[in-house]
Amino acid sequence: MPIANGIRVPKQGTNMIRSMTAFARQQGHGEYGELTWEIRSVNHRFLETTVRLPEELRAIEPVVRERVTQRLGRGKVECNLRFKSAAAGSVALQVNDSLVDQILAAADKMAHRLHSSHLPSIMDVLRWPGVLESGEQDFTPVQEAALALLEQTLDGLIEGREREGGRLAELIQQRVEAMRAQVEKARTLMPQVIDAVRERLKARLAEVAENLDKDRLEQEMALLAQRLDVDEEMDRLRTHLDEVSRVLRHDEPVGRRLDFLMQELNREANTLGSKSADSGSTAVSVEMKVLIEQMREQVQNIE
User: Fold this and answer.
1) pLDDT tens profile 242-260
2) Please, are residues 123 and 3 in contact by the beta-carbon 8 Å criterion?
3) Is the pTM of this model over 0.85?
């Protein structure tokens, strides 16, 4: 994966559909000790990042948030870092000589006042708060190691999201093809539906009138056929399905666009159902809605 300004960026021109649900864990060791990153992400409308860091590395939190924002588009992301320091026993202890002098001077003064020869022991002095001080540890190398390990963990998270995204894209494309079959079925059924409606209408009118005005009947049938015509809906459905297939090949976050397309597909399927004049076309409309709902469930998990 190429690197720009110290940040890994995804390659262009590949299928980058990503799920928002994934988990990654990376561990690193060095002279500083042990670092462990755990990052998990789940569905969310926007990008929401929670960062938990040990107190010693709290200073890198803004950088961590920036790196996550640069690498991820959407999802609720939890970043947890654990740090086990190897320097706990290697940090040199220093004696606060000034405080020791004050303690001994005070002890000598009290001994003189009380006419006592008892003075505090060495351990008594060492146990006095502030007498022993630990040298300050430079956490810069640890911070750098933590940020480098963060990039590796994000790599793993993104790879997991892409693998799951690829599976989601396959499932959605399968539903798209099933929808195409239903569109063609509806288009094939429509002439038969109109003929059947015409025959039913003729039979019904024959029951109530002896002399039918054939011209008037044909006019009514033409109006009825126009109301039942679903060619525009079929064309729009095919256009939306083509767009879904095209979007699934994008190399950028497409979840919101796919969600919008699901709304458009559902609108056309509802219109088709409202124009249904027989059980066959009604069944087609119902099957379309089922497929759209299945796609919508998958889309909710896409970045």
Assistant:
1) 999 999 988 788 999 999 9
2) no
3) no
